Amino acid sequence: MANVLRNSAKFGFSGVLSQLSIHSRHGRECVSPCFSLQQRNNSTSPKIKVDLDNSTGVAVLRMQSPPVNSLSLDFLTEFCINLEKLEMDKSCRGLIITSVSTHTHTHTDTDTVTQSHKTMIHTITPPVCVVSQTLSKVSSTGLDIITLPVCVCVCVCLVSQTLSKVFSAGLDIMEMYGKSPERCGEFWKAVQEMWLKLYGSNMATIAAINGSSPAGGCLMSIGCDYRIMADNPRYSIGLNETQLGIVAPFWFKDTLVNTVGNRAAELSLELGLLYSAPDALKIGLVDQLVPEDQVLSTAQDTMSKWLAVPDHARQITKSMMRKQTIDKLLSNREADITNFVSFITKDSIQRSLRMYLEMLKSRKA
Ligand SMILES: CCC/C=C/C(=O)SCCNC(=O)CCNC(=O)[C@H](O)C(C)(C)COP(=O)([O-])OP(=O)([O-])OC[C@H]1O[C@@H](n2cnc3c(N)ncnc32)[C@H](O)[C@@H]1OP(=O)([O-])[O-]
């Protein structure tokens, strides 16, 4: 739809119609899907797993980037590639976004070292199991120095933490802290791209929020058409940027206003509020609460209702509702990047981010 929206500025509303009729996947032949396991297409990348059920036309995209599904440049790039692939796949009409509820990420790596040579393994999150022909060791630190015999082949097996408490912790703060202006600009462009692709998607999109969803995680959720959240007192959702001393850009704000209305958005943004699930439901930040173990099945049931509406009618309506908001960013993209870079690289903002990171770590300790 992003393309359709872009073109529609040129062609007017009838242009949207004709564009959509070209892009419409099923027109009026909308069959209420049953969620069988037939013809399943799978795609797994390190941080994201996608299962597309061709019999229903519904894809489930699971974020699986420990420890908290933070949105790094790599993550966002993978996310956008997956979204684009699904968007181009005519058999895919609906997308559910969720986090893996219990996650076991296995990674193997090999290395050759000489006697007494100390190898530092950086990229491990605990618990970690390091296995070699002569060594078997468990580390709880995630950062270990091991001494190995001559030319031994090391097999590193990583079993990561579960992600059961988090949908997404939002933008990866490490991407905004201590980075060059060029890198910050590249990162911000990827954040824009994620939102443009999601908010303008032709697919019906549902966020199955099975964990906390602050800041960028909330943006991803409100970028979808519908939100179902686990009714768990530990989870919260909201655009809490001001709590970090940073400012949510206009298109975060616009998306929130479009979701909860001006007054609730004003309170929410200025105070950087994180809402409990019931409070999020009360202001309309999420549409439905369900027990945690029913989040995905409810999303699938709900999706069948969305897909019972003829695609072209739903897409044109979505376009009418979102086009203005999307166009606003499209016509200010470069200025928005420049603005973000000059803001985020300021000493005072960097200090705020460092304090926030320290707070996160001390809270953990
Ligand atoms: C203009 C810009 C707009 C900005 C938009 C944004 O999205 S700004 C983003 C706003 N986002 C927020 O304000 C959310 C901040 N995060 C949280 O509130 C909590 O982490 C949680 C509730 C998501 C999960 O609680 P939990 O008890 O399950 O987990 P835990 O707390 O123990 O964390 C585990 C590890 O992950 C680390 N880490 C965490 N988040 C981030 C991050 N975004 N990035 C990077 N790292 C992050 C944390 O430091 C810790 O590292 P350590 O010590 O192991 O090296």
Automatic annotation (TrEMBL):
<keyword id="KW-0007">Acetylation</keyword>
<comment type="similarity">
    <text>Belongs to the enoyl-CoA hydratase/isomerase family.</text>
</comment>
<dbReference type="GO" id="GO:0005759">
    <property type="term" value="C:mitochondrial matrix"/>
</dbReference>
<keyword id="KW-0276">Fatty acid metabolism</keyword>
<dbReference type="InterPro" id="IPR029045">
    <property type="entry name" value="ClpP/crotonase-like_dom_sf"/>
</dbReference>
<keyword id="KW-0443">Lipid metabolism</keyword>
<comment type="pathway">
    <text>Lipid metabolism; fatty acid beta-oxidation.</text>
</comment>
<dbReference type="GO" id="GO:0006635">
    <property type="term" value="P:fatty acid beta-oxidation"/>
</dbReference>
<dbReference type="InterPro" id="IPR018376">
    <property type="entry name" value="Enoyl-CoA_hyd/isom_CS"/>
</dbReference>
<comment type="function">
    <text>Key enzyme of fatty acid beta-oxidation. Able to isomerize both 3-cis (3Z) and 3-trans (3E) double bonds into the 2-trans (2E) form in a range of enoyl-CoA species, with a preference for (3Z)-enoyl-CoAs over (3E)-enoyl-CoAs. The catalytic efficiency of this enzyme is not affected by the fatty acyl chain length.</text>
</comment>
<keyword id="KW-0809">Transit peptide</keyword>
<dbReference type="InterPro" id="IPR001753">
    <property type="entry name" value="Enoyl-CoA_hydra/iso"/>
</dbReference>
<protein>
    <recommendedName>
        <fullName>Enoyl-CoA delta isomerase 1, mitochondrial</fullName>
        <ecNumber>5.3.3.8</ecNumber>
    </recommendedName>
</protein>
<keyword id="KW-0413">Isomerase</keyword>
<comment type="subunit">
    <text>Homotrimer.</text>
</comment>
<dbReference type="GO" id="GO:0004165">
    <property type="term" value="F:delta(3)-delta(2)-enoyl-CoA isomerase activity"/>
</dbReference>
<keyword id="KW-0496">Mitochondrion</keyword>
<dbReference type="Pfam" id="PF00378">
    <property type="entry name" value="ECH_1"/>
</dbReference>
